[in-house]
């Protein structure tokens, strides 16, 4: 009887050891994955309506933020990005890229009517103007604050979709708008 109990105890210890060693491998791998490749984020508020959170209220979209795609700070006009807020470094905000370095932007209430986006910066705006704390409030944003690019809406299930870059009507750099006319 004692040998059966001893065998069970030994087997239990082996299982526990395997679990603990697996845990210590899985946690660093998961943290590395989330830090380098991608993670999910809940989009709260109305600043990106109607594209994100179209129903408003307590229903929030959840997006997949691709960190790998922005590792070299490469974004394009129309991308929806997550950045560290220039106003509150503890907060991340999700906005659309309107202009890149060197672009001339017609602002929507910034201190200057027109702004040239400086090197190493981009211009971001929420889709719901007037309900968004964005570059029209704090100016061009340093690419160093870039955290990820939203690549997919993953929740709720009825809104599953890939996010493709697009600019709202009448937004974007002035020279691009003039070329389209």
UniProtKB/TrEMBL annotation:
Residue ranges constituting the Peptidase S26 domain according to the UniProt record: 18-106, 112-155
UniProtKB keywords: Hydrolase, Membrane, Mitochondrion, Mitochondrion inner membrane, Protease, Transmembrane, Transmembrane helix
Record keyword Transmembrane helix present: yes
Catalytic residues as annotated in Swiss-Prot or TrEMBL: 47, 95
Entry's Gene Ontology cellular component terms: mitochondrial inner membrane peptidase complex
Pfam families the UniProt entry points to: Peptidase_S26 (PF10502)
CDD domains, sorted: S26_SPase_I
Topological type in the membrane: Single-pass membrane protein
EC number: 3.4.21.-
Gene3D superfamilies, sorted: Umud Fragment, subunit A
InterPro entries, alphabetized: IMP2, LexA/Signal_pep-like_sf, Pept_S26A_signal_pept_1, Pept_S26A_signal_pept_1_CS, Peptidase_S26
Enzyme category, top tier: hydrolase
GO BP annotation list: protein processing involved in protein targeting to mitochondrion; signal peptide processing
UniProt signal peptide: none
Localization annotation: Mitochondrion inner membrane
Gene Ontology terms for molecular function: serine-type endopeptidase activity
Subunit structure: Heterodimer of 2 subunits, IMMPL1 and IMMPL2.
PANTHER family, A to Z: MITOCHONDRIAL INNER MEMBRANE PROTEASE SUBUNIT 2
Family: Belongs to the peptidase S26 family. IMP2 subfamily.
Protein name: Mitochondrial inner membrane protease subunit
Species whose genome carries this gene: Oreochromis aureus
């Amino acid at each position: 009887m004692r040998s059966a109990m001893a065998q069970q105890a030994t087997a239990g210890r082996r299982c526990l050891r395997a679990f603990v060693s697996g845990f210590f491998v899985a946690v660093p791998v998961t943290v590395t994955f989330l830090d380098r490749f991608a993670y999910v984020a809940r989009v709260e508020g109305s600043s990106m309506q109607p594209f994100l959170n179209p129903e408003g209220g307590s229903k929030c979209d959840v997006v997949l933020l691709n960190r790998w795609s922005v590792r070299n700070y490469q974004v394009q006009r129309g991308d929806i990005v997550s950045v560290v807020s220039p106003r509150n470094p503890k907060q991340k905000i999700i906005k659309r890229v309107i202009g890149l370095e060197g672009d001339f932007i017609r602002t929507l209430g910034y201190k200057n009517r027109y702004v040239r986006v400086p090197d190493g910066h981009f211009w971001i705006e929420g889709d719901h103007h007037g309900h968004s704390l964005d570059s029209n409030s704090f100016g061009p944003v340093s690419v160093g604050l870039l955290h990820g690019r939203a690549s997919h809406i993953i929740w709720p299930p009825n809104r599953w979709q890939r996010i493709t870059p697009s600019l709202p009507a009448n937004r974007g750099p002035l020279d691009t708008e003039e070329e389209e006319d």
